[in-house]
Amino acid sequence: MFKIISSLVILLLLTIFYKKCNSHYSSSQVILITNIDDARRILIDSDLLSRAIANQGLKKAFQISNPFTNPNENYRKEFLKVLHKTIDFDNNKWQRFANIALETVKNEKVLKTGFIELVPWVQKITLITVLRGSLRFDANVYEVIDDVPKLINDIWLKSKQYDKNQESIQQSMRLLKNKIYNASLMSQSKDENIIVIQEISKIAHKHLNDIQELPQLTSGFINPTKDELETPLNIIIPTYETMWRVLLYAILEIKVREILLIKNNSKMKKNNHLKNLNNSIDNFLKNPSYSTLKTNSLNLIVKETLRLYPATRSIFRTCNEIKYKIDVEGIHRDFKTWGDDSLRFKPERFEKPYTSYSYIPFSVGKMKCAAADKFAPTVAAILIAAVLSSVDIVDVVDNEAIQKYQKNPDLPFENHRLAFDKMIINLTTLSK
Ligand code: HEM
Ligand SMILES: *[C@@H]1O[C@H](CO)[C@@H](O)[C@H](O)[C@H]1NC(C)=O
Ligand SMILES: *[C@@H]1O[C@H](CO)[C@@H](O)[C@H](O)[C@H]1NC(C)=O
Ligand SMILES: *[C@@H]1O[C@H](CO)[C@@H](O)[C@H](O)[C@H]1NC(C)=O
Ligand SMILES: *[C@@H]1O[C@H](CO)[C@@H](O)[C@H](O)[C@H]1NC(C)=O
């Protein structure tokens, strides 16, 4: 009975949302959206302001002002224009990107064999590859980048309780900014390609005034400062923060799951895509690009990784004093849509003609991810290919972080920030 009433209430609220988003006052009331129809309706009908308000926590913690946190439409248009120009890679640029990824994995500052912590290793590879490969931070990133993932992690976690941690967040932020600033000073890119970071900062300058004229009716919104508009984190966060998670969960499913099954003495039921992955990776790396990816198993692996472990687990909108939390992960794992085996990593499910209706890793509508169509999947595939072709994970340390998966080898891996903090793997190089 309660369920029916609460469904009706939600339906009513959704209808109101659908009709009009009158005010954007923030509030503490949160409605969880687990139904794909409702999710799509909210995502398609909501506006920039309802996103920006919902994401003010991000603005506060990382002191960023990008389309996620800033509702100005002109600024967003230019931001996206710069971004699209720079992620529209031809084959040569993809080759360069893949070479950087491979170089990074093998770099002595990244590659330590033996027992290592999985997560920081994955974060380092991702950060250096995207900084050099797509954001054109070129020289010497290794010198200053050791601490950046740790700082971002730290700020992210503390931001959940911003008020309590304000001072230490600000301290970490100062350090983070310094590190990135230092890296950018060393990146005097020699080619004529534009450096994304500098372009973003330029348009921020240009729009400084109109950006600051924000709707009066808005509470909970604080105007961005010049620093916030100019920070390279505006673009580093959306790029890096999503990509390292994709790489992590692909590695967990492809490599770690296998080890866990062996430790459990389970019979392995490896699917064909994983069995032939070596060949797929070789083929992909010969000509890394989106058009190669489309017909390669890695494409299915990336899709399935983003289904079971969406890098953006929830998408938020605030409207009519309600914060809507769209449960992307829940929608992606719903057995009614995805079948009894919805919790299993099964790349081949994307082989069959499937309905993409219930699949929203990049959101939908006019504010969907700017990199969704080609760039993000290809970057993910290159990172995965670079790692799996260069190194092997031969063991995981038997500790808390993995015991429960060993006891129940079919469990999906947890998809929250600290879940694999303590995971230690034994890494070896593959001689080629
Ligand atoms: C697999 C990796 C990625 C995932 C899962 C992902 C996911 C998303 C999602 C869910 C949104 C919508 C957020 C919202 O409306 O609240 C979004 C927006 C966006 N993403 Fe991504 N993203 C990924 C990679 C990237 C990369 C690599 C870039 C930059 C090169 C990027 C740039 C953006 C931008 C600029 C927006 C805002 C778009 C707009 O306002 O029109 N994303 N992303
Ligand atoms: C990691 O695995 C390799 C290869 O199986 C093995 O030789 C090495 O001793 C292991 N390292 C550690 C620290 O156990
Ligand atoms: C940035 O570089 C300067 C000059 O090399 C150095 O003194 C400073 O410690 C660096 N800052 C950080 C946070 O690494
Ligand atoms: C893929 O390559 C790795 C490393 O060379 C090897 O251990 C593994 O057996 C290969 N898998 C297949 C299916 O060939
Ligand atoms: C293997 O998994 C089963 C459940 O499928 C569990 O009961 C058992 O304890 C696990 N074995 C080991 C060695 O962890």
Automatic annotation (TrEMBL):
Leader peptide range in chain numbering: 1-23
Main subcellular location of this protein, as a coarse class: membrane
GO CC annotations, alphabetized: membrane
Xref: SUPFAM superfamilies: Cytochrome P450
InterPro entries documented for this protein: Cyt_P450 (IPR001128), Cyt_P450_sf (IPR036396), Cytochrome_P450_Monooxygen (IPR050665)
Molecular functions (GO terms): heme binding; iron ion binding; monooxygenase activity; oxidoreductase activity, acting on paired donors, with incorporation or reduction of molecular oxygen
Keywords assigned by UniProt, alphabetized: Heme, Iron, Membrane, Metal-binding, Oxidoreductase, Signal, Transmembrane, Transmembrane helix
Protein name: Cytochrome P450
